[in-house]
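Bumping with the actual sequence this time:
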Amino acid sequence: MKQALIVVDYQVDFVNGSLGFEQAKALDSIIAKKCEDAIQQGIDLFFTLDTHDESYLAGEEGVHLPVPHCVQGTPGHEVYGSVKKFLVHAKKVFIKHTFPSLDLATYLKNHPYDQVELCGLVSNICVLSNAVMVKSALPNAHLIIDATATSSYDATAHEQALSILRGLHVEIR
């Protein structure tokens, strides 16, 4: 069975930077363990990186979320904590300029997997939207999200996102 683990936007600005929140810090050891296990088990590891430039505030996302974050070349763009060391083991890193990654979906469509697990931040925004993209690219793959390996600054939105994902036949562990 061909498997993948996708670490979504586990970046400094989402953990303790401009959009950081306390619960995100606790994910570091959980996601690092998932990465370590994936490497040991021969599961392909992927990362997505939210990536913006100095013109962020002038774009659609910047108008609705006027907080500069994950600006390429800044410390906030980097992968956070102990998870950062696993970046060198990634089969591919997807730079994305909005919530979901079309490049990720296209790649997966052309390189099918039987099972895909997603983790990272933020559950109700980028994790949710990338799970939908994976589901679109791989309609017959088994998708998994470990609820302990994702979080949101908004506990209600987090629970709603997990509920929506269950409705899309994503296994929530």
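The tokens above came from a reply further down the thread. The chain is about 40% helix and 20% strand.
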